[in-house]
Q: What sequence folds into this?
């Protein structure tokens, strides 16, 4: 078979790239080494983690909040973890099947097997049978895998990664999490809500260290109330399994050796770009020290006609970033001049309250010496938040001191994962804080916090504070 474009990897980068290529009239092939399409995101990432976050949130509310709402449950509430995991698997299956449907609809040929370069125009596929296809261009979208630390042996039973944490057979009693980033806090939330004692060991001095510092501070306060314990400025040196116990050794901020014990240890210290078995050396490509493939501004590698997108290249490891890059490359190959505004790729943490941010953080602005104004509005001042009892958090708007253009929006509170879209639209159109402050926001909604924070940033004239 001969294709115009072959996409290797079927995650949100790869399958979206394939769809856009097909829409633009290219004869397109998609290669995936696993049996199901959708990559990390659909199979062992975004979708299953959100399914378990939703289920565990229902349980948490039933135990802690129903009574206040006037709902009494006679005989208590219990977790049925098997059912919870089965439902999650059902959601994953439905979502992955949806990608099969989209491939058929767009007449994309799907090959199941490990794709590797024979040369830049020939790809070998090692699946149930071995076959080769010819192609004019290739988009590499092979994603990432969990990283590890020296001294830690991930046995996938007691010392686990996010993948195993999404399919547990019991709720841990003492879950020790190495890394207070997105995965640690999301999956930690799942098991804390289900009754686990959760301890987070973090190398830096705060959680979600790459987001605006105010968000990490507030999230830490709320998660502590949910039972999380945090150990900052700790450098983990080893994690060893002894029967049903895991012993974790770390150096604390004073350089003293300390130990943590748990029945499970989740290692969530980042992810590493993945190119194993892809045979990039056969076309003269090299991965950098973090396994990433280098590209130019058009996401083309040093080999003409070979592009790379998503987690396997530099930048945020996010599904929506991978998707944008998939569309970008397809349109670039078609001779269009697409653009990605990387500054406006939002980051979201799906804890409860949810955390989201876009654009410059306050720390970025200070570092760059930019003169800015800040307006903040607490969720607890909203009627909508009081009605749903989601009063933790705030929206913080950073605007240019002179032009009033919004430079960054950072929020923590109910449904912030969805609320951040307004900030992205506003910033893409270079809105000023006053522009948003003068727009009607439905009452009562959580979105009013965005309007009020913009009012606060404009002339310190929030209405309900
Ligand atoms: P991937 O999704 O990793 O897909 C790569 C695919 O390529 C895989 O299916 C792999 O099997 C295949 N492949 C690799 N090598 C070959 C080969 N040689 N031949 C054939 N196939 C190959 N991001 C968000 O934006 N929001 C979230 O809520 C979110 N939650 C997450 C939760 C967890 C627990 C994890 C682990 C990640 C989460 N992410 C989230 C990150 C997100 O999953 C990734 O950023 C995204 O999947 C990257 O997409 P991708 O297409 O680059 O690669
Ligand atoms: P992360 O980069 O978000 O967090 C890793 C954390 O581990 C950091 O805070 C880091 O300081 C800490 N750490 C590193 N070495 C350490 C050590 N020796 N001891 C203690 N702490 C250490 O990585 P992650 O949480 O593993 O997630 C991986 C990727 O998946 C991220 O890039 C993220 O973007 C993506 N993801 C996104 C979402 C989402 O968008 N909601 C959800 C899950 C995962």
A:
């Amino acid at each position: 078979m001969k294709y115009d474009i072959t996409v290797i990897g079927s995650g949100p980068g790869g399958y979206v790239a394939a769809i856009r290529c097909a829409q633009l009239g290219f004869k397109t092939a998609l290669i995936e080494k696993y049996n199901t399409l959708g990559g990390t995101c659909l199979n062992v990432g975004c979708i299953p983690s959100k399914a378990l976050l939703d289920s565990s949130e229902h349980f948490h509310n039933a135990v802690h909040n129903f009574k206040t709402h006037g709902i009494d449950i006679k005989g208590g509430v219990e977790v049925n973890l098997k059912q919870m995991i089965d439902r999650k698997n059902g959601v994953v299956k439905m979502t992955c099947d949806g990608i099969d449907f989209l491939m058929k609809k767009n007449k994309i040929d799907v090959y199941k097997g490990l794709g590797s370069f024979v040369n830049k125009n020939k790809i070998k596929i090692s699946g149930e049978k071995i076959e080769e296809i010819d192609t004019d261009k290739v988009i590499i979208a092979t994603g990432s895998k969990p990283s590890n630390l020296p001294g830690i042996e991930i046995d996938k039973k007691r010392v686990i990664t996010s993948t195993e944490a999404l399919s547990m057979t019991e709720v841990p009693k003492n879950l020790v999490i190495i890394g207070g980033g997105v995965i640690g806090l999301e999956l930690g939330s799942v098991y804390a809500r289900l009754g686990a004692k959760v301890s987070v060991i973090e190398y830096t001095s705060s959680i979600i260290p790459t987001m605006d510092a105010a968000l990490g501070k507030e999230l830490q306060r709320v998660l502590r109330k949910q039972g999380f314990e945090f150990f900052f400025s700790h450098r983990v040196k080893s994690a060893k399994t002894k029967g049903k116990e895991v012993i974790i050794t770390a150096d604390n901020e004073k350089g003293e050796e300390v130990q943590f014990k748990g029945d499970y240890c989740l290692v969530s210290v980042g992810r590493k770009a993945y190119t194993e078995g892809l045979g990039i050396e056969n076309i003269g490509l090299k991965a950098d020290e973090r396994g990433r493939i280098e590209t130019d501004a058009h996401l083309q590698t040093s080999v003409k006609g070979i592009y790379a997108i998503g987690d396997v290249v530099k930048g945020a490891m996010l599904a929506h970033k991978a998707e944008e890059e998939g569309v970008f490359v397809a349109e670039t190959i078609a001779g269009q001049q697409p653009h990605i505004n990387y500054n406006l790729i939002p980051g979201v943490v799906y804890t409860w309250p949810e955390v989201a941010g876009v654009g410059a953080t306050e720390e970025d602005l200070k570092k760059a010496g930019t003169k800015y104004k800040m307006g903040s509005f607490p969720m607890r001042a909203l009627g909508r938040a009081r009605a749903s009892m989601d009063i933790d958090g705030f929206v913080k708007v950073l605007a240019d001191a002179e032009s009033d253009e919004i430079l960054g929006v950072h929020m923590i509170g109910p449904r912030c994962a969805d609320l951040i879209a307004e900030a992205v639209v506003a910033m893409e159109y270079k809105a000023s804080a006053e522009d948003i402050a003068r727009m009607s926001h439905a009452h009562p909604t959580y979105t009013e916090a965005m309007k009020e924070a913009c009012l606060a940033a404009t002339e310190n004239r929030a209405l309900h504070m």
About this structure: The first helix runs from residue 12 to 23. The first strand starts at residue 2 and ends at 8.
